[in-house]
Design goal:
- The chain has 333 residues and is α/β, with parallel strands linked by helices.
- 37% of the residues lie in helices and 14% in strands.
- The protein has helices at residues 32-42, 56-65, 102-112, 169-176, 179-192, 203-209, 214-232, 256-265, 276-280, 286-293, 305-324, and strands at residues 27-29, 47-51, 68-74, 80-81, 89-94, 115-118, 132-136, 147-150, 160-161, 199-200, 249-252, 294-297.
- The strands form three sheets. An eight-stranded mixed beta sheet has the order 1-8-7-6-5-2-3-4, sandwiched between helices. Strands 9-10 form a two-stranded parallel ribbon.
- α4 runs antiparallel to α5 and α8 crosses α11.
- The longest helix has 20 residues, at 305-324.
- The radius of gyration is 21 Å and the shape is globular.
Length: 333
């Protein structure tokens, strides 16, 4: 910083954190979608193959940027089905719920060569050398923005740095009050990225990422996932491995829609990942079932095993009442 422009004295600003940041050696951008654009502007690619089971953000971004794309199906092991790449095409691999381990990624790299791994649901799955890999900070931590990219591709441009201080209120508000009070601001922050140019990660977000206890977060998320799997795994229609630092616990059930409604009434907020799939895929497809019948139960670092026990008890009560009591639920916990 130019010493003539630096301020001395006055009130003390937000604290500077100095812990080690996970992935500090990566390319640090404003969002995961910026990581995607960076890759396509630095790689010579004719087209990208996207899974049907995917948030519509990516293919809308492709249309906006003039990137050609096609869709592919995934099987029950979360792997691509019937994809044949040309030499100038790329395969976009989503690591759903962290279920694709290192061996699976290496196998996909050997088979398809040109792959991009989306670890937005697998923040603690470290990148493999030679494999383009991107992460979203917002899906794992209380930050307003942030994307992490590992690639050996280089894109030479003068990017603006994001400024985040004016989009922190929904995070600070929920810390002291309730999520429902600040949900509109959370949605507005998500929408903010739709019309932003590619930017470098903000100074504020990078600072916040230096303040995180990553070992604690990874351990807590893993333990919470394991607990729910021990309690609910027998009724789960998905075959799961226990990932390191899980994103959420995906519980697939035939009556997931009604259970979701009842859980929300008990302030256990379970999203649909991703609702666009319900409009775009056939009702008998595996992708439709993943979107409609999976409950991504929260396992993040805010919660401990007592919270997991409570969630499991509420779920079991709701599920029992729906199956045997006509769908009515009266919380007795």
């Amino acid at each position: 910083m130019d010493r003539l422009k630096k301020e001395y004295g006055g009130y003390i600003e937000f604290e500077q954190f100095r812990n080690k940041m996970l992935y500090d050696n990566a390319i640090l951008l404003n969002s995961a979608r910026d990581c995607f654009i960076y890759l396509f502007q630095s790689r010579v690619a004719k087209k990208i193959w996207l899974p049907y089971f995917l948030c519509d953000t990516i293919y809308k971004l492709c249309r906006k940027k003039g990137i050609k794309y096609s869709f592919y199906n995934i099987d029950k092991n979360w792997l691509p089905v019937n994809v044949k790449l040309q030499s100038d095409e790329y395969l976009y691999i989503v690591n759903y719920y962290g279920q694709l381990g290192e061996d699976a990624i290496r196998s996909l790299k050997m088979k398809y060569s040109n792959i991009i791994v989306d670890n937005t649901q697998a923040y603690f799955n470290e990148p493999i050398e030679g494999v383009d890999t991107l992460y979203s900070c917002r899906k794992y931590f209380g930050v307003p923005d942030g994307g992490v990219l590992f690639t050996d591709a280089h894109f030479d441009c003068d990017m603006e740095q994001e400024v985040s201080h004016n989009r922190m209120n929904f995070l600070l508000g929920r810390y002291e009050k309730t999520a429902s009070e600040f949900y509109p601001e959370y949605v507005a922050n998500n929408d903010y990225f739709d019309n932003q140019p590619m930017k470098r990660m903000s100074k504020l977000t990078k600072n916040l990422l230096h303040g995180i206890d990553y070992d604690f977060v990874k351990q807590r998320r893993t333990e919470n996932f394991r607990y729910l799997h021990d309690r609910l795994g027998k009724i789960n229609q998905l075959k799961l491995t226990i990932p390191c630092g899980a994103f959420a616990y995906p519980l697939m059930l035939d009556n997931a829609g009604e259970i979701r409604k009842q859980l929300i009434k008990q302030k256990i907020y379970i999203p649909v990942l991703w609702p666009n799939v319900l409009d775009e895929c056939a009702s008998d497809s595996w992708e439709y079932k993943l979107a409609s019948s999976v409950l991504p139960l929260p396992v993040d670092q805010r919660y401990d095993l007592d919270d997991m026990e409570y969630i499991a008890k509420v779920f079991n009560t709701i599920n029992s009442n729906i199956r045997f009591g006509g769908g009515r639920f009266h919380c007795m916990l």
